[in-house]
Write a structure and sequence with these properties.
This protein is an alpha/beta fold. It folds into two domains: about 45-150 and about 290-310, Rossmann fold; about 155-285, Rossmann fold (3-Layer(aba) Sandwich), CATH 3.40.50.2300. The chain has eleven helices and 15 strands. It has helices spanning about 10-15, 60-75, 90-100, 115-125, 155-165, 180-200, 215-225, 240-250, 270-275, 285-300, 355-365, and strands spanning about 5, 45-50, 80-85, 110, 130-135, 145-150, 170-175, 205-210, 230-235, 255-260, 280-285, 305-310, 315, 330-340, 345-355. The strands form three sheets. It has a seven-stranded mixed beta sheet with strand order 1-8-7-9-10-11-13, sandwiched between helices. Helix 5 (about 155-165) runs parallel beside helix 6 (about 180-200). The longest helix is centred in the middle third of the chain and has 17 residues, at about 180-200. It is elongated and about 60 Å long. InterPro entries: BMP_lipoprotein (IPR050957), PnrA-like (IPR003760). This is Basic membrane protein-domain-containing protein.
């Protein structure tokens, strides 16, 4: 477990982690594939080698990143995108040698996933003519030929938690957490914070699984959460968690996806009674990160780290929110928020629609100093 928490009815305990400042709902804290285009090259050829943790084309996080490269290639046929699997569980020296082996003839190495950064840093020193891009983790310190792009998962996780808190009927929600790397920890803990921001008396249950790919483990985690009374389940475990939320949805719970639009991946071709249980997905725009990196390399701009957050469209809940008889975003609900006139800072009841509440939370992030 990442944490063990049960929200109390005491207002100060419920609010101590989140004290609104500028807005009423202010959060305090998201094998090989070749892809070619068919237009005339604009500049010198650029061979891009993606390093992924799972077989290419199987993990939604990786699929979205590869899509970003494909979009660049559609505008410039001189860009070639290839992908190879390299396990992050290997010793560092083996990771380095395997990345170098599969990318020996490539110009750019893009590693998708938290954990490759140390290997890229070492390789960047050894091969200064190449560009090395880490997606999901900074490269510290930046080298002249590196780019590190990470995400503010706390923004997307907080919004997912608020969404869960607005739809739960039994005041018990859950989350499936994958390997305890930094992005997952940020997702899980900010999800807790978001739930309690709109539902201070809600309980949050966590099932941690040591995998991003074992769908069976994800399904078992979901069943465990439902047995604990959770009626909304958030996926923070990649493809494994995707299997979990599909199981939960099939059993009648509301669910929230992760990384990309899970209605087009995990829930594709599912019957309406199942897809209607998918409230939204907490997106991490790996496609945007990849495009940002490749465009920077083309312009000769390297040697930096950057965090993509909700202000840049890098993370957040997938929108627009789509209501149905099952999931109603336009229904007014009571929420406990801090009143501007409150002398003690305790929350008071206010009634807004679910969509209005989520929009105010997103606006709060986007207005953050």
């Amino acid at each position: 477990m990442y944490f063990d928490v049960k929200a109390s009815h005491e207002c100060h305990r419920a609010m101590r982690a989140h004290t609104p400042t500028k807005f009423l709902l202010w959060p305090t804290v998201a094998a090989t594939i070749v892809l070619l285009a068919s237009i005339e090259p604009l500049v010198a050829a650029l061979s891009v080698r993606f390093i992924v943790t799972e077989p290419p084309g199987t993990n939604p996080y990786d699929i979205l990143g590869l899509r970003g490269c494909n979009q660049v290639a559609q505008a410039d046929s001189s860009v070639q995108c290839l992908a190879s699997e390299v396990s992050m569980t290997l010793p560092l020296s083996f990771i380095e040698s395997e990345i170098q082996r599969v990318s020996a003839q490539d110009d750019v190495v893009v590693a998708l996933g938290h954990g490759y950064s140390p290997a890229l840093a070492n390789l960047a020193t050894q091969f200064p003519a190449k560009s090395y891009v880490s997606i999901d983790q900074a490269i510290e310190p930046p080298r002249n030929n590196t780019i590190g792009l990470s995400f503010a998962e706390e923004h997307a996780g907080f919004q997912a938690g608020a969404l869960a808190g607005l739809f739960t009927r039994g005041r018990r929600v859950g989350v499936i957490g994958g390997l305890p790397v930094t992005p997952v920890l940020k997702f899980v803990n900010s999800y807790l914070a978001g739930v309690q921001h709109v539902c201070p008396t809600c309980e949050v249950h966590v099932e941690a699984i040591p995998t991003f790919s074992n769908v069976t483990a994800g399904r078992q985690a979901a069943i465990s959460l439902l047995s604990q009374g959770a009626d909304v389940v958030f996926n923070a475990a990649g493809a494994a968690g995707g299997g979990g939320i599909l199981e939960a949805a099939q059993r009648g719970a509301f669910v929230i996806g992760v990384d990309l639009d899970e209605s087009q991946f995990t829930f594709r071709n599912q019957p309406a009674q199942v897809t209607d249980r998918l409230l939204s997905s907490a997106i991490k725009r790996t496609d945007l990160a990849v495009k940002t990196a490749l465009e920077s390399i083309r312009l000769g701009k390297r040697g930096f780290n950057r965090v993509l957050d909700s202000t840049t469209g890098g993370v957040g809940l997938l929108q627009p929110f789509v209501s149905s008889p099952t999931r109603n975003f336009t229904e007014p609900v009571n929420v406990a928020i801090r009143s501007a006139s409150s002398l003690d800072g305790c929350p008071t009841a206010t009634r807004w629609t679910r969509q209005e509440i989520l929009e105010k939370i997103e606006l709060g992030f986007n207005r953050a100093p």
